C-alpha cells in the first residue's frame, strides 16, 4: 500500500492544493482513506497525522472505513417511518448481523439511514447503488438484498 500512496503523492508533488488531490486519489484507489495512508501522507508532506486527518474529515465525501460493494440507504424520514421503516431496519440488522452505518463481514453491503429519498408516495423506500426500491416490507427487502450479486 505504501508504494501506491507514494506514487500518488509524487504525482501531485508540485501542485498547490496537493493534499486534497492526494486524498481524492487515495480514496479512488482504495475506496476509502486507510490509516496507513494518512501516516504516509503526513510523513511525506511534513505534516502531523492529526492535521491530515482534520483536513480530510472536514469534507464529508472522504471515508475512513472500507465500504461494502453495495451501498444501501434506508429512508427513515417521517413518511417512511410511519409506514414501517423501523421494522425494515430491525429485520436488516437481524438478518445481516450489522447495525446501521456498518458494513457486512463479507464486504457486500454497507447500510446507512438517510432522511428522505424523495419518493414518499412509495414509502417505505430504500436505495441500492443509486436505484430506488419502494413499497417495501421487511420480507421484500431481504429478498431484494439476497438477489444482489
Ligand atoms: S419519507 Fe422516505 S422517501 Fe419520503
UniProtKB/TrEMBL annotation:
Its cofactor is [2Fe-2S] cluster. Keywords: 2Fe-2S, Iron, Iron-sulfur, Metal-binding. Pfam families: 2Fe-2S_thioredx (PF01257). Gene3D superfamilies: Glutaredoxin (3.40.30.10), NADH-quinone oxidoreductase subunit E (1.10.10.1590). It comes from the Archaea. GO terms for molecular function: 2 iron, 2 sulfur cluster binding; metal ion binding; oxidoreductase activity. Belongs to the complex I 24 kDa subunit family. NCBIfam families: PRK07539.1-2. This is NADH dehydrogenase (Ubiquinone) 24 kDa subunit. It comes from Aciduliprofundum boonei (strain DSM 19572 / T469).
Amino acid at each position: 500500500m505504501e508504494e501506491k500512496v507514494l506514487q500518488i503523492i509524487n504525482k501531485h508533488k508540485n501542485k498547490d492544493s496537493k493534499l486534497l488531490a492526494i486524498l481524492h486519489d487515495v480514496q479512488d484507489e482504495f475506496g476509502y482513506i486507510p490509516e496507513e495512508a494518512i501516516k504516509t501522507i503526513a510523513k511525506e508532506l511534513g505534516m502531523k497525522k492529526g492535521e491530515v486527518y482534520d483536513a480530510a474529515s472536514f469534507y464529508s465525501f472522504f471515508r475512513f472505513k472500507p465500504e461494502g460493494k453495495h451501498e444501501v440507504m434506508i429512508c427513515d424520514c417521517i413518511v417512511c417511518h410511519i409506514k414501517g421503516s423501523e421494522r425494515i431496519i430491525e429485520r436488516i440488522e437481524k438478518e445481516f448481523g450489522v447495525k446501521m452505518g456498518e458494513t457486512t463481514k463479507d464486504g457486500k453491503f454497507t447500510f446507512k439511514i438517510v432522511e428522505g429519498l424523495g419518493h414518499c408516495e412509495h414509502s417505505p423506500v430504500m436505495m441500492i447503488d443509486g436505484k430506488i426500491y419502494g413499497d417495501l416490507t421487511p420480507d421484500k427487502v431481504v429478498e431484494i438484498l439476497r438477489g444482489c450479486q
